[in-house]
Amino acid sequence: MTATLPTPSDLAFELAPVGLLVTRDRVIERCNRAFAGMFGYSRQQLVGQTTEMLYPSHSEYEDIGARGVRSMLAEGIHRDERIMVHRNGELFWCAVSGQPVDPAQPYACAIWVFEDLRPVRAVRMALTPREREISAQILAGRTSKQIAKDLALSPRTVETYRLRLMRKLEARTVGELISRLLGLP
Known about the structure:
By secondary structure, this protein is α+β, with helices and mostly antiparallel strands. Helix content is 42%, strand content 19%. α5 (129-139) packs across α7 and α6 crosses α7.
């Protein structure tokens, strides 16, 4: 009796050097080795679980989810960089891209790619959930007005958070702030 060989598409999914994830209504249906390893779980521990367990807080799960729906409805895809949480509690940056199977129902079934940014960007300090959101937006090159619109805040509130981040990270300029957020000296 001969063993069934995996199909090329199964091999590509399982051995991809980035985390791959299939979700239905934000519940993990399938993930590859790289995804499970990135978060410190076995695949068996992840399948059937909500993706909320991978976020630092419930509010970040909700807020990022709402932004994802908006961008998938508008553009058919969602991309961002965000802070996620490892099983051991460590926070780390991820680049995330997601695409729904049916653009009219973004979370009914979606395919996600997660790239672990730990080798190039460290989370070196304790940030609040809102500071993490604003940091991710700053790193994406967005202006205070753009961030305010996206997060439903006033531009003045965004500026206050930006200044708080600069003080916390001892940055004198936005360029220094970006360097510090990226984990550069």
